């Protein structure tokens, strides 16, 4: 009998997911990107039907254990009997599920890194980046390509946030590679990737480029 998930996902998969989520959260907390209880992370457990392991709500993300996750469905709703803890799922589980659904991501990370909020404040229509070596890490060109990091307005309604994300993401990826990040104004950023490590790389790279954009802003407008 499968201890955590009588319906199929193995104990090993769930333990690995919880262990990885806790380790990544501790790492982000160490960077100061998950202060207090802010931020949340998810990994895709199954694609069809979509199931995610998402961090529990309201927890200190620097102190998560491998059990501090909840299994949720394509709408970010808890799925009983599929493993995870007794915590409430992250308040933002619905947006994680929407991003995983639309982008095919294997992992989504949400952090309250300050440069994301400052950049969204300066450039509410999107942060324009070009001619930076770090863009290669997002799957774009280091020269002669303009990359726009989308910004959406904050909301406590995950359907509204998801709609805003989708309306920016789909046209932008119609014929060019995706930008695996979205900034939420006055809130933070979401980044994603094939797995947690790639999602983290994207978050780290974009945070560096946003800091560059902010710190060189006066020079650009002179
Ligand atoms: C200071 S926590 C703010 C929260 O409302 C939210 O934005 C957040 O990132 C964490 O929510 P959580 O429900 O713990 O996943
Ligand atoms: Zn948040």
Keywords:
two-stranded antiparallel ribbon, 19% strand, alpha+beta, disordered N terminus, 6 helices, binds zinc ion, 222 residues, binds 5-S-methyl-1-O-phosphono-5-thio-D-ribulose, single chain, L-fuculose-1-phosphate Aldolase
Describe the structure.
With 222 residues, the protein is of the alpha+beta class. The protein has a single domain (11-221), classed as Class II aldolase/adducin N-terminal domain (L-fuculose-1-phosphate Aldolase, 3-Layer(aba) Sandwich). It contains six helices and nine strands; from the N terminus they run αβββαβαβββαββαα. The strands form two sheets. It has a seven-stranded mixed sheet, sandwiched between helices. α2 (93-103) runs parallel beside α4 (158-172) and α3 crosses α5. The longest helix is centred in the N-terminal third of the chain and has 20 residues, at 11-30. The radius of gyration is 17 Å and the shape is globular. Residues 1-6 have low confidence and may be disordered. The structure holds 5-S-methyl-1-O-phosphono-5-thio-D-ribulose (MRU) and zinc ion (ZN). Zinc ion is lined by residues 38-39, 92, 110, 112, 187-188.
